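debug: dumping io for the single-chain case to check the tokenizer round-trip. Nothing else runs in this session.
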Amino acid sequence: MVAPLFLAAWLGGAALTGIASYLAYENWDAIKKKVSGKSIVILGQRATGKTTLLNYLLKGEITFKNEATIGVKKVKISKRKLSDLGWDVRLNSIQNDYSGVTSNYEQWLKALKNADIFIYLFKADEWILDEGAVENQLEKDIKNIQKELKGKNIPMFIIGTHLDLLEGIEFNTQKEKIKLIDELQNEAFFKNIKSRLNVSNSKAYLHFGSLKDEDGLDEIIHFIIGQMGE
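debug: decoded output
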């Protein structure tokens, strides 16, 4: 059933995998150029982590490293606020009813009209417990989202959250976690969703992670920024 993935975000030519605490950006100006002025829309069902991710984008910090080139090589680690990147982050209000009537998605479709980056969150832990229910809801959401996107040339991120809450699954090592994620990404349902969004000039990315702490959030942000400008 469960199948995870190998996660790598290419930033400044370096493949970043796994542990967020070990990751550091190298060029603030290059990153800012990628996202400044971009409108980011975060969508998803209740309790998927939208507000947590939004708050981190607005208030969190990312790590930079600068290497001294004179004498003994030294690496200086510094922090910069994500909000200083100059992006416009919006959290769309949650729908009260998902009966399948298109009008229920009116707010979502309106939010997507001017989106430059689209992020959709779903709970990976709930999918493990009840594949059918989560897949049906995700399928319904994506179908309505596609009506607005229609091959729009923007990066789209489908992110399974709450990876730390998977019942009966524990990670003794980072290698085990990466293996699980690799299997999840290769699940037929998720591969199908991704391929349907990858039409015309559109580019969709699938990722799984945790929002429980700064390391988990930082890793997700690294992944998102790493795909910008591909």
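debug: round-trip ok. The first helix runs from residue 28 to 35.
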